């Protein structure tokens, strides 16, 4: 922080002041040490985010607005290692849809179809993630001409 060759002391002090201003505006009780119960609730939130097909990305302190119908939820981030479990969920949904159609359970059928669409969306997310991981981005290797030409001086070529 005190290295003046790279950053002048004024820049460092201005940055510290910039960080301190919002802290001065916030109530001081927000900066207190959390109680053991608060800390356990915070850590527990992250444990409850682990699901059978991935991780729930909802924010700390918020409840699940989808009543834990996670395969439907856009906050569920599927993990590639859990694809097999997602296949099981999809196959189960397909079997339950067939049963609901046979029994005439129209209300159940509608909910199952929404869940199946959510499962298909999770497969699409996993496939897109795999494509991104397997896509090679060619950055190229700069040549001397590319590097030297950046300062605006023309390169001299022997004749």
Question: How would you describe this structure to a colleague?
Answer:
- The protein is mainly alpha-helical.
- The protein is 53% helix and 4% strand.
- The protein contains five helices and two strands.
- It has a two-stranded antiparallel ribbon.
- The longest helix has 29 residues, at 106-134.
Key descriptive features of the protein:
2 strands; 5 helices; flat; two-stranded antiparallel ribbon; mainly alpha; 159 residues
List the helices and strands and how they pair.
Elements: H1 9-25, H2 36-48, E1 54-56, E2 76-78, H3 83-103, H4 106-134, H5 144-148
Antiparallel strand pairs: 1-2
Low-confidence stretches: none
DSSP strand count? 2
The proportion of residues in beta strands is: under 5%
Shape: flat
The run of helices and strands is HHEEHHH
Derived structural class: mainly alpha
Main β-sheet description:
2 strands, antiparallel
How many helices? 5
Share in helix: 40-55%
- Average pLDDT figure: 84
Strand order, main sheet: write it out. Answer: 1-2
- Rg: 27 Å
C-alpha end-to-end distance: 52 Å
Brief synopsis:
Helix content is 53%, strand content 4%. By secondary structure, it is mostly helical. The model has no long low-confidence stretch (mean pLDDT 84).
């Amino acid at each position: 922080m005190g290295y003046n060759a790279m950053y002048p002391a004024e820049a460092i002090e201005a940055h510290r002041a910039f960080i301190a201003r919002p802290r001065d505006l916030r109530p001081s009780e927000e900066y207190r040490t959390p109680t053991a119960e608060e800390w356990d609730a915070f850590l527990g939130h992250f444990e409850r985010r682990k699901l059978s097909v991935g991780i729930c990305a909802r924010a700390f302190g918020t409840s699940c607005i989808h009543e834990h119908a996670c395969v439907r939820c856009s906050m569920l981030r599927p993990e590639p290692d859990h694809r097999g479990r997602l296949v099981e969920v999809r196959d189960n949904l397909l079997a339950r849809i067939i049963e609901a159609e046979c029994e005439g359970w129209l209300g159940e059928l509608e909910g199952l179809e929404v869940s199946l669409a959510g499962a298909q969306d999770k497969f699409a997310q996993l496939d897109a993630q795999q494509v991104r991981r397997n896509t090679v981005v060619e950055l190229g290797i700069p040549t001397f001409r590319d590097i030297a030409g950046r300062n605006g001086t023309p390169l001299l070529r022997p004749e």
